[in-house]
Design a protein that fits this description.
8 strands, 4-stranded antiparallel β-sheet, about 190 residues, 6 helices, alpha+beta, FAS1 domain
Length: about 190
């Protein structure tokens, strides 16, 4: 049944994605009755983010129908780039993020409340679930960007996906709420 639903949604364009200006696209229709967590579970191009939320036990928060959230969801490609810098999930080699750092990173991508694209304005600052940090919205013409303390602005590259308890915005980079160690990564962010 799940595969049939995914095939139908994909063929209908619900989960189609192409990097274009966020404000030129209409919102994707909600998957009927699905929460943010349930939609992420169905969204193949964000499976790494969803797996990380499960590992950090944030999926239960994103599954609560009465708790509205907006999630800036990095694609699998974004997580792969992060892992290539040594900042993926902790491994037996000792590289990567420990569980606490992973939870902080994920909480930095979640904002309490519903913020579809049209509710986001240049100069707006939104407090995240990581209370020590906020994300800032900037604009270049009609294009909107989200950024954090140690992250270059990342374009909201897709129409948002409406869920019954929130909104999903796909982004092409993982936003980092904490400073990277000097010896890790290429320093390109």
């Amino acid at each position: 049944m799940r595969r049939l639903l995914l095939a139908l949604l994909s063929s209908a364009g619900v989960f189609a994605w192409a990097p274009t200006s966020a404000q030129t696209l209409a919102p994707k229709p909600a998957v009927p009755g699905k929460t943010v967590a349930q939609t992420l579970a169905l969204l193949g191009l964000a499976s790494k983010f969803y797996a990380a939320t499960k590992a950090a036990r944030l999926d239960s928060l994103l599954n609560q129908p009465t708790v509205p959230t907006t999630v800036f969801v990095p694609t699998n490609a974004a997580f792969s780039r992060l892992e290539a810098t040594g900042l993926g999930r902790a491994s037996t080699t000792g590289q990567g993020l420990d569980p606490h750092q992973l939870e902080l990173l994920l909480r930095f991508h979640v904002v309490p409340g519903r913020y579809p694209t049209e509710a986001l304005k240049a100069g707006q600052t939104l407090r995240t679930l990581n209370p020590a940090f906020a994300v800032k919205i900037t604009a270049q013409g009609p294009r909107l960007f989200v950024s954090g303390t140690n992250t270059a602005p990342v374009e909201l590259a897709n129409a948002y996906i409406v869920c019954n308890n929130g909104v999903i915005h796909l982004i092409e980079e993982v936003m980092i709420p904490f400073k990277r160690a000097a010896s890790v990564g290429s320093g390109s962010h």
